[in-house]
Amino acid sequence: MTPSTKRVPRSPLDLFLTFSILALQGFGGVLAVAQRELVDRKGWLTREEFVEAYSLAQLLPGPNVVNLSLMLGDRFFGWRGALAALTGMVLGPLLIVIALAAGYNQFADHPQVAGALRGMGAVAAGLMIAMSFKLVGALRANPMGPIACALLALVTLVLVGVLRLPLLWVVPSLGLAGWSWARWRIARTGLTR
């Protein structure tokens, strides 16, 4: 998609409906669904813009996709867009979670419920892995280069997944290392945006 063919939401209502649908499609995370909807179907963002916006959303406190919805809503319609996107992202799931919480104690001991929850967790993990493979091409334009990005991802996986170090220390440390490497590469190669 080229900048001239990039589309924008028609109204804050379009943002609200899009993010409502996104939120209702995800169980255990909607990032993969958000990428498919915002980049592939709606065309509101390029893959590179999605990666950049999502990277920033991860640094902010709160749920990543909620942060992403706020940023995109603000980008397109200011505070009205941010409010519409945020409301769309949280209203439906909030109502569903309240209803499920009310009935959870009654059904929690059923093996079918536990199995369904485990299966949904596996599906969510598979969606994340598939989305990461789909977005890896956007790393070619990253100043760090795809090898350094892959190395940072691998180190993060080892530190958090294998060594069980807390995210509170891993993310700022590796984030600072990645930022420093990117700044050094930009200064060395004279890349600007």
What is the strand and helix layout of this fold?
Elements (H helix, E strand, L loop, with lengths): L11 H14 L5 H11 L5 H13 L4 H44 L3 H25 L10 H17 L4 H23 L4
Helix pairs in contact: 1-4, 2-5, 3-4, 6-7
What does this structure look like?
The chain folds into two domains: 3-140, no CATH class; 142-193, no CATH class. It is 76% helix and 0% strand. The chain has helices at residues 12-25, 31-41, 47-59, 64-107, 111-135, 146-162, 167-189. Helix 2 (31-41) packs across helix 5, helix 3 packs across helix 4 (64-107) and helix 6 packs antiparallel against helix 7. The longest helix has 44 residues, at 64-107.
Quaternary structure of the protein? single chain
What's the number of structural domains? Answer: 2
Query: Cα distance, first to last residue?
Result: 18 Å
Largest sheet: none
Strand content: under 5%
* Overall number of strands: 0
Order of helices and strands: HHHHHHH
Q: What class, by secondary structure content?
A: mainly alpha
Number of helices: 7
Helix content bin? over 70%
C-alpha geometry: globular
Unreliable segments (pLDDT under 50, ≥5 consecutive)?
A: none
Mean pLDDT: 84
Rg over CA atoms:
19 Å
The gist of it:
The chain has 193 residues and is mostly helical.
